[in-house]
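Project outcomes to date are best conveyed with an example. Our students and postdoctoral researchers have been running inverse folding experiments weekly, and each run begins with a structure described purely in tokens. The record below, which covers 164 residues, was selected by the lab manager from last quarter's runs and is presented without edits.
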């Protein structure tokens, strides 16, 4: 199915092709390439508004995930009953925030990929609200990013490292 990648901001330059190519590989690694996925790139004002509405946090952030399938167990692949259910959900990337947080020696597209992968793990039921759930999420992100690194040569670290 399709990966829809929208850029709804003008705060930072964004080439969608590198992110799309990497996220297609991530979807394949996770075995969810037959599911629709939306990745929406927004500026600080937009991500802050969404964060305030849905999480009651009035600050910009790097990523917000909105799963199509509710109450999934970590790593569970959805079992759709009909064609319309072949959807994972949407990931909002705060690309302006991510750009501002990038360190001098970090590649912006590497960080976008890591952040989008983190969001995709959330769509697949992974969380980091407890140390045990964080450990599962961290291990999944690490495994996916290592596999992606073997394909691309990039050395990517999970976004969830160091949370606990």
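After processing, the design step wrote out the following sequence:
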């Amino acid at each position: 199915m399709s990966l829809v990648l929208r850029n709804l901001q003008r705060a930072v330059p964004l080439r969608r092709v590198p992110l799309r190519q990497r996220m297609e590989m991530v979807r394949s690694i996770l075995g969810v390439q037959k599911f629709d996925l939306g990745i929406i790139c927004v500026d600080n004002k937009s991500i802050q508004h969404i964060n305030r509405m849905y999480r009651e946090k009035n600050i910009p952030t790097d990523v917000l995930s909105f799963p199509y399938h509710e109450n999934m167990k970590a790593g569970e692949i959805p079992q759709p009953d009909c064609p319309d259910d072949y959807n994972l959900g949407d990931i909002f990337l705060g690309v302006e925030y991510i750009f501002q947080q990038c360190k001098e020696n970090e590649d912006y597209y590497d960080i976008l990929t890591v952040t989008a992968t983190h969001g995709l793990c959330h769509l697949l039921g992974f969380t980091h609200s407890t140390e045990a759930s964080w450990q599962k999420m961290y291990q999944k992100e690490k495994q996916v990013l290592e596999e992606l690194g073997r394909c691309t040569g990039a050395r990517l670290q999970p976004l969830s490292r160091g949370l606990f």
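The longest strand covers residues 87-94. The helical segments are 16-30, 44-55, 95-101, 108-123, 131-152. The training component of this project remains on track.
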